[in-house]
Automatic annotation (TrEMBL):
The keyword Cell membrane does not apply. It is an enzyme of class 5 (isomerase). This is peptidylprolyl isomerase. Pfam families: Pro_isomerase. Residues 53-245 form the PPIase cyclophilin-type domain. Keywords: Isomerase, Rotamase, Signal. Residues 1-19 form the signal peptide.
């Protein structure tokens, strides 16, 4: 079972026995009925290979349809097959791309991979109408948005009428230059530190890491400006990158995420807001958007 970072930390702090009237987070998940778990669609997933193991990203076409379509086009063309992690900035992001495209001084024999029929530039996709979304609103105030919650497992923030994805731990975004339309999905990053919510509305977010996050967050930090690796020998391959539905069934992970519109998830929300257990001396009765976990497990 992969839980959110906070949930894992809390389980690790367990000392006194859980009060009988207060179910533990694990007990909530263990008793969640099958109908409260949704299958993560392989056709909306990206599989990376990092350090010999899988990293799975669930994409969010409902929030960034153009960017997701471009990323799928790049993946299917083999663009990412030689991609590598080129930047790991401590407490911030890990970023992967075509190393030749990122190298300011490429060798004469090194050329960036062609984009093929993928778009070179795309407008940012940072919000959309809230109508048509199943949203589990969070009750507590947020410093960045008047409305926060979860929709289909993704953290969202915005107003009553328009919402967008939020920069929480594990979220995946499109790298760009100064021009707002300069990102096309050929370089991507995942948040590995404290949630940089100031980026909300400034970068297109396209999904969330739902499996193998530890393979990204534990990579060696870069020592160059912004955490870029200064020696190409430090680059960490992430390819081949495949769309989940193109991965052979035997190698595919059958992943299930707890539905964030379910009664079980509302129980998780109540647990996170407290009270939790006798270990806690003080419970603030408040939970931040990026503190809410997304429980994901392999189907049994």
């Amino acid at each position: 079972m992969r839980l959110g970072r906070l949930a894992v930390a809390l389980c690790g702090l367990a000392g006194p026995a859980q009060a009988a009237s207060e179910p533990s987070l694990q007990a909530i998940l263990d008793h969640a009925p099958a109908a409260d778990w949704r299958r993560i669609d392989p056709a909306r997933s990206l599989y990376l290979t990092v350090d010999g193991g899988p990293v799975v990203i669930e994409l969010a076409p409902d929030f960034a349809p153009r960017a997701v379509a471009n990323i799928l086009r790049l993946a299917r063309s083999g663009y990412f097959d030689t991609a590598a992690v080129v930047r790991v900035q401590d407490n911030y992001v890990v970023q992967w791309a075509d190393p030749a495209a990122e190298d300011p001084h490429p060798s004469k024999d090194e050329h960036p991979r062609p984009l093929g029929d993928a778009a070179v530039t795309l407008p940012m996709e940072v919000d959309r109408p809230a109508s048509g979304l199943e949203i589990t609103d969070l009750p507590d105030a947020d410093p960045y948005a008047s409305r926060v919650g979860l929709s289909d497992g993704f953290p969202i923030a915005g107003t009553a009428g328009r919402v967008g994805l939020a920069h929480c731990y594990g979220m995946v975004g499109v790298g760009r230059d100064t021009a707002p339309d300069s990102g096309n999905g050929s370089e991507l990053y995942a948040v590995i530190g404290q949630s940089p919510r100031a980026l909300d509305g400034n970068v297109t977010l396209v999904g969330r890491v739902v499996w193998g996050m530890e393979r990204l967050s534990s990579l060696k930090r870069g020592t160059g400006p912004l955490g870029f690796y200064t020696d190409r020998s430090m680059d960490v391959p992430v390819g081949p990158v495949r769309i989940g539905s193109d991965v052979p069934v035997a190698a595919r992970l059958d992943l299930r995420a707890l539905r964030t519109d379910s009664a079980s998830y509302r129980a998780v929300l109540a647990y996170e807001r407290g009270p939790r257990s006798a270990w806690f001396v003080h419970m603030p009765g408040h939970v931040g958007l990026c503190e809410m976990p997304l429980p994901v497990r392999k189907a049994s």
